[in-house]
Amino acid sequence: MPASFADATAPLVERFNKSQSRIQLSVSRGPLDTDAVSDLAISSLLLGSSPYDLLLMDVTWTPKYAAAGWLEPLEQWLGSGALDDLAPGAELGNAFDGHLWRLPLVADMGLLYWRTDLMPEPPQTPEELVAISQQLQRAGKVRWGYVWQGRQYEGLSCVVVELLQGAGGRWLDQGQPQLNSAAARNVSRWLRDLVILGITPPSVANMTEADALQTFETGDAAFMRNWPYAWAELNRPGSKLAGKVGITTMVGAVGVPHAATQGSWGFSLLSGSGHQSAAIEVLRFLTSAETQTELNRRWGYTPTRLSVFTDPALIAENPVLPELQRALAASVLRPLTPIYAQLSDLLSREFNAVITGEIKADPGMEQLQSNSERLILSSGARG
Amino acid sequence: MRWRLWLLIAPALALLLALFIAPLLHYLWLSGHAQSVVTGLEPRPVGAQQWLRLLNDGRFWQDAGQTLRFAVCSVGLELILGLAMALLLHQPIRGRAAIRTITLLPWALPTTVMALGWRWIFNDPYGPINQVLQALGLQPVGFLANPALTWLALVWADTWKTTPFVALLLLAGLQTIPEDLYDAARLEGATRWQCLWRITLPLLVPYLLIALLFRLAQALGVFDLIQVLSGGGPAGSTESLALYAYLNAMRFLDFGYSATITLGSFVLLVLLGGIGAVLWRWRPLAGEWR
């Protein structure tokens, strides 16, 4: 698992190992970066006999790994009720092709961070976000209005997914790309306009989550798109913005439910594992309500179980939980397909071209649409 | 006695076979097979289909152009700056040993570390360069937000890191040139400039060639610097062939096409080498430099 998760779960793993003598659990501390963890996992899986039994997986990996034949279906071990206790939104992205491949440990979803000291209410629509930003910028309260992830990478795809859904559009509909739709064109034009209007700095074209957080943290921006981890960072003792930040879901068109790109992490059982029943026992323990409660209390990790979200004692300690639960309920998934990485690569590349002004929004979306169609056709995969 | 000869070179041959020929043959085989998530990672023979796809893949050719442009510009700069640096380091100045060590530092840094460093230096608006610009009352520059500037940033970062390597090679070359050649030339009244053009450079040619070959081979396979600094963006304008092959293998799990891209790059490299060799043989200065 990624280093941060390995560190956070270390005390739990130790307790698990002490509580019984049959299973000795050891955790491989992978790199921090999601892609680097994937590289490590894939390299070991390609060798045929992976040394691992369980893998902590990002939500977008599941169909790819399942199609590669690396995962073991979980329903035979956990039964059909395995997802029953999950909060709405957290159950998404674990099943693919009729099988359950993954049980989520931590939920993650795109959030709109806003400054409670600068405005009474967060914006609901893209137009409101622009208006509030410009007003604050004119008044000299902030240098920029809104910072987000515009670098050519997965983060940009996440930004687009929730905006597209909020504009009434879809990435894929029944396997077919819908990227030259009015909604997609509007979203790409809006993102470009944010740069032209000076609401978003031009450097957004190379901005990741960490870069956006840095700008927002210094008080330079009124809004930020980021994941829940930023909440703890912004409210830690000594932070300039402690107590001055609110979270809500991404803006969307009037009458369309707001959307939050889901990005959870969960455990999968590897088909090459020689200790499957022991691994399932570990999986149960590591995704249990008890584990999730502890991870939230100590590290601020967002739970996936309803019983944890609604635990009054935990809410008293962490009052932002209900807001996170609401955002999770607005979850939208990135397309569940083995060729997701290719689709996302095309999308982030084209949107990045629009944002930097290399291509206009309309022709850009036409190009993205035809490239995506060609990819789906040539791979013969269902989207 | 012949078999003894073979016995002696056998270890080297085996190594070459295992590390170079075998992977090459495997890739050749793989480029004729579809092996991806779509096929459940089972290799499926597809003939020349992936090669046709490569020929028609605009992204491959765009990346090839971008990689070549990057390599030629950064290696060119490195040779010029490296030569200047080597000439400087060859002078008997005080503290020479210390200076030599210091100039080597950028080269000793792992590429990812220095790429992260440069990403921060070029950061808009918090990086040091933009802090200076803003202190002077100027607008910050989005170095990594615009294709042309990002490309320059990449060339610059690469030049910064590998110029010391070139300088080191050339310095070794400089030290092999006997002093009496210069003494003789000076007796004949040659200027410093003439010494440089007529003695130093011609005798340095083998070393320049080695540096050129080493650096070109590395620069044409550039991966980590780009992956960290720009991720191939903005808008794919800095994606290299190695990055494209990596994306196909590790992100898309399309091993067949990734192998085809790698072999395609290999073919282009061999062609380039061939052109270079022919040009070298026909070089106009051949007579003069012998």
How would you summarize the topology of this molecule?
The complex is a heterodimer of chains A (383) and B (290).
Chain A: H1 3-19, H2 34-46, E1 54-58, H3 62-67, H4 75-78, E2 95-96, E3 99-100, E4 103-106, E5 111-115, H5 126-138, E6 144-147, H6 154-166, E7 172-173, E8 176-177, H7 182-196, H8 209-217, E9 221-226, H9 229-235, E10 245-248, E11 260-261, E12 265-269, H10 276-286, H11 289-299, H12 306-309, H13 312-317, H14 321-329, E13 331-332, H15 340-355, H16 361-379
Helix pairs in contact in A: 6-15, 15-16
Chain B: H1 2-31, E1 33-34, E2 44-45, H2 49-55, H3 58-90, H4 96-108, H5 111-121, H6 128-135, H7 147-176, H8 179-187, H9 192-220, H10 224-229, H11 241-251, H12 255-281
Antiparallel strand pairs in B: 1-2
Helix pairs in contact in B: 1-12, 3-7, 3-9, 4-7, 7-9, 11-12
What does this structure look like?
Chain A has helices at 3-19, 34-46, 62-67, 75-78, 126-138, 154-166, 182-196, 209-217, 229-235, 276-286, 289-299, 306-309, 312-317, 321-329, 340-355, 361-379, and strands spanning 54-58, 95-96, 99-100, 103-106, 111-115, 144-147, 172-173, 176-177, 221-226, 245-248, 260-261, 265-269, 331-332. Chain A has 383 residues and is of the alpha+beta class. Chain A folds into two domains: 3-108 and 262-332, Periplasmic binding protein-like II (D-Maltodextrin-Binding Protein, domain 2); 117-260 and 336-379, D-Maltodextrin-Binding Protein, domain 2, CATH 3.40.190. In chain A, helix 6 crosses helix 15. Chain B is mainly α. Chain B has a single domain, classed as MetI-like (MetI-like fold). Helix content of chain B is 74%, strand content 1%. The A-B interface holds A 35, 38-39, 42, 64, 67-69, 151-153, 201-206, 211, 214-215, 218, 338-339, 341-342, 345, 349-350, 352-353, 355-356, 358-359, 378-381 and B 36-38, 40-41, 53, 123-126, 140, 142, 144-147, 150, 230-237, 247, 250-254.
